[in-house]
Amino acid sequence: MDMQLSCIQRGWGFTPVVGINFHKDKWTVAVKYEFRTKLSTENDTETLSITKGGSTTNVKAMAEQLGNEAVIAALSADLGDMAGKVAGYLPNAKTRYDMPSLLTFAVGYEFTKKLRAAVEYHWYDDKSAKMGGDRQKTLSHGTHEILAGVEYDINDKFTVSCGGQRTDYGLTDEYQQNTSFACDSYSVGLGGAWNVNDKIRLNISYFTSIYSDYEKNLTGAYGTPFSAKETYSRTNHVIGVGIDYKF
User: What pTM, to 2 d.p., does this model score?
Assistant: First the structure.
């Protein structure tokens, strides 16, 4: 069976944020909490069709004519569990995909007037952030992140920095899906800043994430008596450019 899909999901939410910052001498300590953001995304489905045995079914057109519930019932009779693969992409269907609450701790220390360093910890309460089909319950725990960075002023004009991050999602086989998955990672980054004048500062940065492949072993894969292994992997490279302006 082949499925053709083009779908955009849109939603909006409101996030209250509270934080405390304490600074004394060379030390800075900060705590921040971002509340869970309730999001309900709605589909804007452009293409949704299934081809099986040389015959193509325009699922989007059927849903617009008969309604989503009738289409799922019809597909379930013909395709069984595979009907659930298209349920989340039917026209105007809504799916919960909350942004989890986030608790952040950070400590910074100024070794000299030119050299500063900081360490930080993030905890995302993913298991309390609702997803379609209660998918969040399949995670073993929320996301843990540990970060560290160093910044050095070469002179009054130029500043350089570097840092790293470790991310652990608490992944399980039940959580990983072909259309939505995650991989634990290590990230490293470099940055630089140029004080063009007293009011303008140019910032440039680069970072890359080294992801750990996630392997999922399947028994009776894809409706066959055979076993299979799915490997989830990703890469990224990010370049950032920004300008600070002091009024």
Answer: 0.83
